[in-house]
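Reference record
================
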Amino acid sequence: MFKRSLSILICLSLTFLTTACQAEKEVTISPHATISVSESPETFKKNNEDIKQYWSFDDNPLNIGSLGVTFYEINFPSNDGTATFSYPNVPSLTVDNVGMTSGFYIHDKPKRGIQSVRIDFFVPNSQGSYGVTKRDAYIAVQKLFKQLEGQGWLDDHRIDDPRISIQDSYTYGTSENVADDFVNYQYPLTFNQFKQLPSLQTWSLRHSTDVFLDITMQYNFEEEINNYVYMISLDFSSEEIHINSYISYDNPDDTLESVFTKAYPDLPTSRLYAETQALETGLKIQQDQPDYTLPLVLEKTGIDTSKFVSIDPYKITYDEFIKRQKAGEDMTPYYENQTKPNCSGQLI
């Protein structure tokens, strides 16, 4: 069990960051990208014809689980672009000071449009450059969270996440050697707590089950300007890509249905692992905290993830459960409501 891997690509050199920090923005109209999860590559190109000098496409025909993918990337000069991301049934989100946006389409699912979108932007100061104080960054992040909350975004409580309160999520998410470092984005961070966040911090959100969003913040202290540089990445993904984060495709014949059905019975132990750590940290498990239905999983497998059955963390620890399970003991009494996986892989 390890912390969820971050999709952030830490490829910006200190030299690049320093140059970006020192550069002053000119008073010009920023190039603007328009991105929608429902559009085709052709629609994307049409909507962004006026900035075609900044974007590129790369086809990859060999991709496990599909016929292939097309990657796109937009690189704005001087990190001075803007990007508007559209998603179903909620107001669009426009981001300034964008350095890059990227994503991909799956070839055999053209009607679903973009499956993943990433937008990287810098937190600017009042003069428009990228050397900022931690308070500048704190204000910018709080403003972003308030906007997202007003648009109906929720904290994404995954099946393998510990069932803890919003208040406890900060303690758990900032503890070392835990399975999950995602703090609930609705936790009311004070400025002092914000200052103590690690230099790489992620929040996980969802809007219903249509669109999922990981917000990753990373920062460096630049001695040459005696200030901080904060870059924030917004990683939007479809329900299918979100589901794929639970599973691994080992061969070209694997499907979401077959792989998720096989992996599903092991997810209660993943949650038990996280909840054992939460109890060791002195936190309380909220056993009545609900899970939500993933419609695509229900459609493909018949599994309703809202009926997920956890292992009771107050009855047994993760290590003890695994030890007894391997010894062949009937572990039914340790599941909440004394239920356990059946042979089909669905919890009932």
Observations:
- The two ends are 25 Å apart (CA to CA).
- The longest strand covers residues 93-106.
